[in-house]
Amino acid sequence: MTLNATIAAIATPMGRGGVGIIRLSGPKSLQIADKLFVPGPRFKGFKAYRLHYGWISNKEGQILDEVLLAFMPGPYSYTREDVVEINCHGGPAVLEGVLEALFGQGAEPAGPGEFTKRAFLNNRLDLTQAEAVQELISSPTQSGALLVGDKLQGHLGSRVEKLRLNLEDLKKELCLAVDFPEEDVQCLPKNVLAEKAGACADEISGLLASYEQNKVFREGALVVLAGKVNAGKSSLMNALLGRERAIVTPVPGTTRDYLEEAINLNGLPVRLVDTAGRRPTRDEIEMIGLEAGRRLIASAELCILVVDSCIEPDREDMEILEEVGADKIVVAANKWDLVDSSPEWLDSFSGSGAEVLRVSAKYGSGLEELTSRIRSRILGTPRVEAFSNMVPNLRQKNALEKAAQELELLINEADRDIPFDLLGVRLDCACAHLDEITGRIVSEDILNSIFDNFCIGK
Ligand SMILES: Nc1nc2c(ncn2[C@@H]2O[C@H](COP(=O)(O)OP(=O)(O)OP(=O)(O)O)[C@@H](O)[C@H]2O)c(=O)[nH]1
Ligand SMILES: [Mg+2]
After folding, report:
1. How many domains are contained in the chain?
2. What is the pLDDT of residues 280-325, one digit of tens each?
3. Ligand nearest to the CA of 231
4. Atom 12, ligand 1: which residue's CA is nearest?
């Protein structure tokens, strides 16, 4: 479809409602609507940005609906083209009737997201804003919608654009150094180049950190309870959930499969998983359960290693510690109600750098401290400041990562004897990845894949 076509679609959801809106965009919007509009008594011609009362008829002159019609001439419209919006009654048959009448007058059916695509192609929105439109519509929660609101205003896009301009300036300095190689030391010392590229890479890391932080709020953080049989994992699962979800018995090997439940830790959504207890086994079913547990542990944001405080940890506990690494582990020294004094072996955990908390799943002690540590360990203090109002989506995150990789390579190469013009190519590549985000330069394929996910009429 060419940009010259005048497109039309129902902009409101299909179904019955008080009002349903049909939107037209393109050079003939007003001309097409005018052919079907039967004005009300006080109509004195179409005025921009006013609501006009009247009726829509079909080409046989039959009245289809009583409407309010607005004309928004470009460039001050959603698409920057001439736009007409017709407020009809919100019934599917009415709306389809009016739409068909508009097609009969030369309007063409709009594709998914085509209004927003035109807004992008006509430079009213950058690509981050266009994507934010769809993200806003699909936000399930108000807090999610608030985050997108900032992107809709273009904050992410302008941040990325500023970064690109910084890299472009750096490229200019580099070109001077290439053009006057004998003066390269004065033009751009390599440590200064690396420093400037490093500053841009840090900013990208900040944007990536906000993606990661937001990811746990979007998808829920995976927290896995692991440990030897009988350590009290299922008891801890139940205690954290506040209900008897998992079977608890004194028999070692009670839990064979994993169990997943959602909990809310002061606003942080968590997917809490209880796993089969570790022990040497030849039982086929148990081995499958243990393998499933291993896979879950590997992808967990945090692993709670549950140990029985009465039993000195052995190979199995240490195996989990090694598998996961101390930075992703909280050791829950369970059954603390059964010990009189702190056993010495607890130090071996602390020595490994793992955080140890004393709890009793049975009597509920230490659980508040445990939940508050789970929360802060997951949210953590990010290495770099996250921009909470500029959360990239997955596509944008991938492009940011590629740009950051180019800068990392450039910083490494600046240390070695790599010619300036080759370093310049790295900057070009980083800029190209940033351009993909804002849509400054973007392939037709990427554009189609983005707008194909939109609804028709947006
Ligand atoms: N005294 C005391 N007993 C506990 C505590 N937590 C669990 N137990 C007991 O320890 C036994 C095992 O508890 P489970 O929760 O089934 O242990 P598990 O780690 O899930 O065991 P498997 O599923 O076999 O791997 C049960 O008899 C529990 O009542 C605790 O904090 N204090
Ligand atoms: Mg269990």
Report:
1. 3
2. 999 999 999 999 999 999 999 999 999 999 999 888 999 999 999 9
3. 1
4. 230
